[in-house]
């Protein structure tokens, strides 16, 4: 029934009403039916932008988002995803134009802290990807609870390249 509606109605339903888990289930269900092409086309449309997502669970989520080329306005990246800086940078490049709010954190999820030690120091590579790709970014947060992270030139480049950026929060970052 969903795919019999107009594109705008379909986009509204999948991007505003469904949780990401439900979207993944719908994606899986469409694999077995003739609606597969319609579903993939719908998620690729420029106006199909999902409101917010916390990437906390696994790198598999991030890879699924990359493969499906989903777009989000707000993203928070935590824990395991932040450890894989190459994947994280690819994700930021993919999401870049649609992102207005981005949070990079050394916590496992918003409710629980996780110590990253030296691994989180690679955050600089991710911030460089933000500078190159996130042209619509309005709010940017970097949180590290274990040590002061030196962002230096990467942060300066982000501030220079992102003209819409009006909120920057750096917790334990220099």
What report would you give on this structure?
A 5-stranded parallel β-sheet has the order 1-2-3-4-5. Helix content is 45%, strand content 16%. The chain has 174 residues and is of the alpha/beta class. It folds into 2 domains: 1-48; 49-171, Leucine-rich repeat, LRR (right-handed beta-alpha superhelix) (Alpha-Beta Horseshoe). The protein is built from 8 helices and 5 strands, in the order αααβαβααβαβαβ. It has helices spanning 7-17, 20-30, 36-44, 59-68, 79-83, 85-95, 123-133, 152-161; strands at 50-55, 72-77, 101-105, 139-143, 167-171. Helix 4 (59-68) links the parallel strand 1 (50-55) and strand 2 (72-77). It is elongated and about 50 Å long.
In the CATH scheme, the class of the largest domain would be Alpha Beta
The chain-level structural class is: alpha/beta
Main β sheet profile: 5 strands, parallel
Q: Stretches where pLDDT falls below 50 for ≥5 residues?
A: none
**Roughly what is the average pLDDT, rounded to an integer?**
78
Number of domains: 2
- Helix/strand order: HHHEHEHHEHEHE
**What is the CATH architecture assignment of the largest domain?**
Alpha-Beta Horseshoe
* Main β-sheet, spatial strand arrangement: 1-2-3-4-5
Helix content: 40-55%
Strand content: 15-25%
Stated plainly, the CATH topology of the largest domain is called Leucine-rich repeat, LRR (right-handed beta-alpha superhelix)
**Terminal Cα separation, in Å?**
52 Å
Q: How many strand segments? A: 5
Shape: elongated
